[in-house]
Predict the 3D structure of the following.
Amino acid sequence: MNNQKIAFIGGGNMASSLVSGLITSGHAPQHIWVSDINADALAVLSSTLHVNTTANNDDAISEADVVVLAVKPQVLAAVAQQAAALIQQKQPLVVSIAAGISQASLSGWLGADTAIVRCMPNTPALVLTGATALHANAKVSPAQRDLAENIMRAVGIALWVTQESELDAVTAVSGSGPAYFFLLMEAMENTALSMGLDAETARLLVQQTALGAAKIALESAESPEQLRQRVTSPGGTTQRAIETFIQGGFTELVAKALGAARNRSIEMSHPTENR
């Protein structure tokens, strides 16, 4: 893994986090290339992480065993089509982290023989606590699967799904999921203010409570339901709050929201079918 040459096409926040995570896990900076049109972003990457940088995508791809497509989805078609000839010649593994771009679209742009892994990371990858789901097409070898997984594990956990369509559910659960927790934190913080707590106290209490709950869940073998029951004393304040949530349709609302997110992911992956 540490000797594999990796080219990132796009040097934005997610790519920068992946590069930083790879180097922290032992990947040699001299084996990493980053291509971007933003000279300032490249200068930062070069000076802080000591990776190779270029404004020319072909220069990066020509060196690579793995090409990570990390540009915005709306420009990916143009980037991929421009790179297609060189990718067909070099036959690297292509890893896409662009949301809503199907493997069929990528294969159409890059060539039917291209080994492609499509990934759905989430924003906590920016602080190396991400959750990423991956799906490989039939051209990806076992060694390439391991390589793609190791790249994404540099910023958190990485899990494989058996069907590409499962990435739509992943998008709804973990891809968009951080925003759901932020929404709950926002509502809790605003309510704490209305109850008389000052802003700093309200924010710190909410943030630390969210961190603590997540840490307990990660380190426990019990389900969230069991953990909730364990901290809900009969007749106490927590039970009253939980009952209020349930009576207000909280569970049904979560299901409806995640379903809407999944459906939107499907629409984005098949734009020509939803015009």
